[in-house]
Design a protein that fits this description.
This protein is an alpha+beta fold and 174 residues long. The strands form two sheets. It has a five-stranded mixed sheet. A two-stranded antiparallel ribbon has the order 1-3. The longest helix is centred in the first third of the chain and has 21 residues. 27% of the residues are buried.
Length: 174
């Protein structure tokens, strides 16, 4: 009976997580500078980055660049991508993460890149699927949530990765 109870509790949590993931969030968009978003994210992440001796670079070619987004949700996406990058660079001799933004063809593109382990090519098409994870302690919610947030903003997220060389996630906003 206790085993059945434990299994039931696990499935209850999985169901609750999936239900929360599949809910459409109501966006609270506002025009916000990319510099402000980057500042918030950097401020939140800086203690962990310093603790792990990671070289963290922010590149913003146009300080006036702005977006009409729900900044809280976009910050969540960036934090998730940076946490994943931190995990990817933990074995690197010279760990480096970059958060950059620029305007390309009337689209704001934000990139989070690292020089970590990279992602195996055979799983690249699976990383945005809910509950897919390569981490022992991962639940597979982070990247699927990132994709959902970008879809809510009528944007998209893409990834390029070379195993052993690093990964670049790009967020594109119309």
């Amino acid at each position: 009976i206790s085993t059945i109870k434990k299994i039931s509790e696990v499935w209850r949590k999985v169901t609750e997580t999936y239900r929360n993931l599949s809910k459409k969030n109501k966006l609270n968009p506002a025009t916000v500078s990319v510099m402000e978003i980057f500042g918030h994210v950097q401020q939140l992440m800086q203690p962990n980055i310093e603790k792990r001796n990671i070289d963290f670079e922010v590149i913003l070619k146009d300080p006036m660049l702005s977006l009409n987004v729900d900044s809280g949700l976009i910050e969540q996406v960036l934090i998730n991508l940076i946490l994943n990058a931190m995990d990817a660079v933990k074995e690197s001799a010279d760990p480096h993460i970059t958060m950059a933004a620029e305007l390309i063809n009337q689209k704001v593109i934000i990139r989070v890149s690292d020089n970590g382990t990279g992602i195996e090519s055979q799983i690249l098409d699976k990383i945005f699927i809910p509950f897919f994870s390569t981490k022992k302690t991962g639940n597979g919610i982070g990247l699927s949530r990132c994709k959902q947030v970008m879809m809510l903003h009528k944007g998209y997220i893409s990834v390029k990765s070379l195993q052993g060389q690093g990964t670049i996630f790009a967020l594109a906003f119309e």
